[in-house]
Write a structure and sequence with these properties.
Layout (H helix, E strand, L loop, with lengths): L1 H22 L3 H4 L6 E2 L8 E9 L2 E6 L1 E6 L4 E2 L4 E7 L7 E3 L6 E6 L3 E11 L4 E21 L1 E7 L13 E9 L11 E8 L5 E9 L4 E8 L6 E8 L6 E10 L14
Parallel strand pairs: 2-10
Antiparallel strand pairs: 1-5, 2-3, 4-8, 6-7, 6-9, 9-10, 10-17, 11-16, 12-15, 12-17, 13-14, 13-16
Length: 267
């Protein structure tokens, strides 16, 4: 009987040891940070849209998306914060901020994607800690060409984040063909055809119509069948038709909510 009780005690001890790993353990084992840095970063915005334009083959103004990250409340129990950095995940080198001044890092994205931004703080004892924040950058392009019989616009739907994921959720286009008024001498109608091809040169959609002199017609279309690479939007007029003015308005957009929530500084 004593032998049985001894064996039972050994079994219970082993069982208790195995269960201890299921119900609790060291912070390092659970992935929790246990170092000296209290990393606090505030940011008001985690999304935006790039504005880009082209006119008759010439590149116009392009405005990127600038986001700012405030490290001012980050501290370390082992010393002063000596270095703060931002890795934008767009292939560019990490950006270093001034930890001794306002401790804010700003960066401007010029390409679209959902970027996994790494924010890092380091103290003067060599300790470091980082967090990751996802930001969503969409792109809006306005492309114009005047007095043309054939206009071809290309745009790249490839995300610029380093892992190339996710793809955009949709491409939305609004293409307007205007048949200008030729004044005293008059003119003719314009037979207009639109086509949208994906990077494999597969035609995704098309449309057409007759545009009278002094009139315009617009083709609106949205595709969610996304393939990375160069897309082509072509606008052509038929034979014996007046040349047209073309305005293409294209948006490359990612799913709302693919970015992280904001973390504004408390008032």
């Amino acid at each position: 009987m004593k032998a049985n009780f001894g064996l039972l005690a050994v079994i219970m001890t082993l069982l208790s040891a195995s269960l201890a790993g299921c119900f609790g353990g060291d912070d390092a084992d659970s992935g929790e940070y246990s170092g000296p840095i209290d990393l606090i970063v505030y940011y008001d915005t985690t999304s935006g849209m790039i504005e880009e334009s082209y006119n008759n083959g010439q590149t116009g103004p392009k405005t990127g998306v600038e986001l700012s990250f405030d490290f001012a409340d980050t501290t370390s129990s082992s010393g002063s914060i000596s270095k703060i950095t931002l890795d934008p995940d767009d292939g560019s080198d990490p950006v270093e901020g001034d930890a001794s001044d306002d401790a804010v890092i700003s960066y401007t994205w010029m390409t679209h994607g959902v970027f996994s931004v790494t924010l890092t703080a380091e103290d003067d004892d060599g300790n470091s800690r980082d967090i990751m924040v996802k930001v969503r950058i969409d792109m809006h392009i306005v492309w114009t060409e005047s007095n043309t019989g054939s206009a071809t616009m290309t745009f790249d739907a490839t995300p610029d984040c380093e892992d190339g994921d996710p793809l955009p959720e949709r491409i939305t286009l609004s293409s307007t063909a205007e048949n200008p008024n030729n004044g005293f001498f008059g003119g003719s109608n314009s037979e207009v055809t639109w086509s949208l091809n994906n990077p494999t040169d597969e035609q995704i959609a098309s449309d057409g119509g007759t545009v009278g002199e002094g009139q315009s017609q617009t083709w609106d279309y949205t595709t969610r069948d996304l393939v990375e690479g160069e897309w082509t939007l072509t606008v052509e007029v038929g034979e014996n038709s007046d040349d047209i003015n073309v305005t293409n308005d294209v948006t490359i957009a990612y799913a709302e909510g693919s970015e992280d929530s904001t973390n504004p500084r408390p008032e």
